[in-house]
Amino acid sequence: MKVKLENLTKRWGPVYAARDINLDINDGEFVAFLGPSGCGKTTTLLLIAGIYKPTAGRILFDDRVMNQVPPKNRNIGMVFQSYALYPHMTVYENLVFPMKLKRVPPAEMKARAQRVAEMLGISQLLDRRPGQLSGGQQQRVALGRALTKHPDLLLFDEPLSNLDARLRLSMRAEIKRLQMDLGVTAIYVTHDQVEAMTMADRVAVMKDGQLQAYCPPNELYDRPRTLFIAGFVGNPPMNFIEVEVVLRDGVYHAQRAGFDLPLLTERGGQAAGRGPVILGVRPEDVMIAEEGIAGEVYVVEPLGRDDLIDVRIGEVHVHVLADPNRRCKVGDRVHLCFNTQKIQLFDPKTEQSLLWT
Amino acid sequence: MSESASTVQALEAGKAHYPEEKASLRSLLSPLLFMAPAIILVVVFFFIPVVIVLAISLTDMSTATGFNNWKWVQFDNYRRIATHPNTLPVLRNTLMYVALTLALFNVGMALVIALLTTHVPRRSGFLFRALWLLPRLTPSVVYIMMWKYVAADAPYGILNQHLLGPLGIPPTNWLPAQPWLFVILTNGFIGASFGMVIFTSAIESIPYDYMVAALVDGCSLWQRIRYLILPLLRWPLLFVTTYQTLSLLTSFEQILLLTEGQFGTEVWSLWAYQRALSNYWGNFQWGFGAALAAVLVLIGVVMALVYMRYFQFNQLVQEPKIEAL
Amino acid sequence: MEDRLGMGNRWRVAILLLILTILTVPILVGYVWILISTFSQRTYGLIPVDASGQVGGLTLRNWSFLWEDPNIWKVTLNSLILAIGLTIGVVLVSSMAGYALSRISFPGRRVFLGTTLVLHAFPSVTLLIAIFFVLRWISRIPILGRDIPIIGGFGYNTLGGVILVMLALQLPLGVWLMKGFFDHVSWDMERAALIDGCSRWRTWWQILLPQIRPGIAALAIFSFISGWNEFLIPYTYITDQQQSTIAAYLNKLLSDTAPVNYSQVAAVGLFQLIPVMLFFVFTQEYLLSIFAGGAKGGS
């Protein structure tokens, strides 16, 4: 099923939880809503579910306006962060409850519940109550409950946040796999950019109730359209340096005290003559080299595979991912070499990218 | 997009989809059905009675006039109250009853029991609090019967037999002899449990750190009560005092059962009740009784409004997190 | 845990317990007396004695009312009907209204919540005179007024009328209590139910009510005891002996026969007290929670 949001707005008093959101989701697509807590992503999800009513704008399922359709008639399945299982029912009763309400014939109901239980590996738990299950098992039951009714749309509200790190990793793959096999449209709300990037076909980044970007994960990573996205996506986060771009001897240079970096013409040209701009570069796109911009090692954080090194250049600090074999020590004089193909440039006032629109 | 633009969008969305109106009607109906029984009961047994009390208080309705021959007498009943020979004594009785019961039991004893039961091992504290709850749960007729027997003349009365006899005090029926003592005791032993429960939960919710800090500072038990617990109990104390003042002001069931207002124990609410609904002579003066009750109703309304103003009404009202119906 | 309040000192605990015991003695004395008295010919204080005043005279004679006075069973049944009717009514009406007030946004919600809170503090006994007139009016409604089997109807001089009045007077407490319990149920669970296909009615009945069973149990016990104990309202609004309750019956014994045969009256009192004591022994925690919750306005 296709989902379309048109100027979707939700306001509580003077506060906009969601503001003029326009979004198209294709049939069978997996879309992640990504943003920090309080950005309005869960509100948007609940608007789609019909739990909240929009202040303005429309929600369309396959070109049908859903604004006034109550949740029970939307044929959606939803998985919650708190699992929200019914504690007074057994796992089996939880699984068949949505089907009972849809008046599915008993024989089919039983068959479907067993199929889903098998698929999720919870067949042996059917007689237990949710209180007797572990967090991971509960989340599987919640997922099963959302699936048995054969929904047209699956909604996930931070479903993995309450699980421990390792379980999260395996559930992540499992959910993605299930969604692909079933071919059901899915919306997945998360504040974890790794989840969004690894699972989604497209990611909608939200901030303060507004849609910041809506594009495939790699585009989000390589071509961030706002300063917020650039800083939010990627770990460790992107370095930001305030510079001025000037044309010297036919080459664009990003300059500040103790810092001079030649830029590619097609990138530098967008930023020249604007006064101060913000240059962004990811830690993995900076290397410690024999020559280049000089700085001093300020902090070394071993991450295992890499060392995250904080290099001070004048007043700015640049984080660099370096090979641990280099054995950088605090106070070392080092030189930094930048991958100019990956340099981002932003307008400090509008916080928009100067490279991508 | 600007705000006005999104408002336009909203209007268009509404226009394009007519069902909106039907939905909003339904949105009223469902909560209304949930609320209907409660609303009907509240209207029939609170709102209408308040109006009736005020209306009847302006008539001379009584057994003598019946329900057909009564007439409006404006404020005659109130004037009668103002000049009635019983008014002053009853008023004095009421004030004495409320003030003494409140100070000695509903607040005083409640505080003492709460403090004591939170400073002994948990299980015994719980047992004693449960025992203090017992009078409130006992049928009032049975409860008053026990007290009557406590007060009864020798050789039956418990007081005479086991306490005063050995002390050499001549026996008598103590109920007529000391009516106020027993009015206050019977009401007090019931009333103390309300404050006790509230004070206990307030004391138990004092952060552990405070208690430890007080111990570390070398406070004695009394110092801790005086300088730590009591200041933190200010709000519950105020609540219990005001709430129980109102309850005592209008309660008369125990007095009715204990003395029926004899021996000079008539209080305002009992006076109203007996005038209008229950007395030996069967001469029910509904108009006059209603005027007596109306005075209490007005006090009740005012004080109830004061509670709502001061006891954090807004905190209790959160907006529902579901808008669908 | 014991040391939380710094009660390391054994002697101090012993003294505190002693003070508590002394303060509590007046409560216990009455119950001890009633127990002794019901099995004695008469008592001098707490000492059972026979007709000549000698210690002894234990007897079961006082309980003869159980088989000699058919009225006792009639009034017991009436009290039971009153208590059960009140319990069902209070739980049903309060949980419906409490659910709507806690969980549904509708115009007038705040106003009704405010009203309930005011009524919670409002001294309802002051309205007894006016309610007398309301009940008389209800009596005039055909069938509903005075022709319903078992409860007699909802008008004056019927058990149903008394149930209705008591239900209304307990409603503010019940609604606040239920609202408080509903407030603590997870919103996600209710959202899940709505998405799974429930209407709000089904959500209330099948999903939310099971979550607040302790609250319902507490309110039910409290209502049952109130109905079983109540003296004033049945005494005021029921004059018909056939509809009288056990509390009124006991009061009549106390005020009619002069001199009062205390031992026999004590037996009737104990008879009325037994169910209350059973509830008390097994459910004190629930009852304490009701007072804590109800007093603070339910949350």
Structural features, described:
The complex is a heterotrimer of chains A (357), B (325) and C (299). With 357 residues, chain A is α+β, with helices and mostly antiparallel strands. Chain A has two domains: 222 residues, Rossmann fold; 108 residues, Nucleic acid-binding proteins (OB fold (Dihydrolipoamide Acetyltransferase, E2P)). Chain A is built from nine helices and 20 strands. In chain A, the strands form four sheets. In chain A, strands 6-7-8-3-9-10 form a six-stranded mixed β-sheet, with helices on both faces. Chain A has a five-stranded antiparallel β-sheet with strand order 13-12-11-14-20. Chain A has a five-stranded antiparallel β-sheet with strand order 15-19-16-17-18, with no helix packed on it. In chain A, a hairpin with a 2-residue loop joins strand 12 and strand 13. The radius of gyration of chain A is 25 Å and the shape is elongated. The model of chain A has no long low-confidence stretch (mean pLDDT 90). Chain B has two domains: 94 residues, no CATH class; 179 residues, MetI-like (MetI-like fold), CATH 1.10.3720.10. Chain B is built from 16 helices and no strands. The N terminus of chain B is likely disordered. Chain C is an all-alpha fold. Chain C has two domains: 58 residues, no CATH class; 227 residues, MetI-like fold (Orthogonal Bundle), CATH 1.10.3720.10. Helices cover 70% and strands 2% of the residues of chain C. Chain C contains twelve helices and two strands. The two termini of chain C are 26 Å apart. The N terminus and C terminus of chain C are likely disordered. Chains in contact: A-B, A-C, B-C. The interface between B and C is large, with 116 and 116 residues.
Task: Write out key terms for the chains shown.
heterotrimer; B: 325 residues; mainly alpha; MetI-like fold; disordered N terminus; C: 299 residues; 2 domains; two-stranded antiparallel sheet; 12 helices; 2 strands; 70% helix; globular; disordered C terminus
What is the element layout, followed by pairings?
The complex is a heterotrimer of chains A (357), B (325) and C (299).
Chain A: E1 3-12, E2 15-25, E3 30-34, H1 41-49, E4 56-61, E5 64-65, E6 76-79, H2 91-101, H3 106-120, H4 135-148, E7 153-157, H5 165-182, E8 185-190, H6 193-199, E9 202-207, E10 210-215, H7 217-222, H8 227-232, E11 239-248, E12 251-256, E13 259-262, H9 265-271, E14 276-281, E15 286-289, E16 293-302, E17 307-313, E18 316-322, E19 333-338, E20 344-346
Parallel strand pairs in A: 3-8, 3-9, 6-7, 7-8
Antiparallel strand pairs in A: 1-2, 1-4, 4-5, 9-10, 11-12, 11-14, 12-13, 14-20, 15-19, 16-17, 16-19, 17-18
Helix pairs in contact in A: 2-3, 2-4, 3-4
Chain B: H1 3-16, H2 20-56, H3 76-83, H4 87-117, H5 122-137, H6 140-151, H7 158-167, H8 174-177, H9 179-204, H10 208-216, H11 221-232, H12 234-250, H13 253-258, H14 268-276, H15 286-310, H16 313-316
Chain C: H1 10-38, E1 42-44, E2 47-49, H2 65-68, H3 70-103, H4 109-121, H5 128-140, H6 159-183, H7 187-196, H8 200-211, H9 213-229, H10 232-237, H11 246-256, H12 262-295
Antiparallel strand pairs in C: 1-2
Helix pairs in contact in C: 1-12, 3-6, 3-9, 4-6, 6-9, 6-12, 7-8, 9-12, 11-12
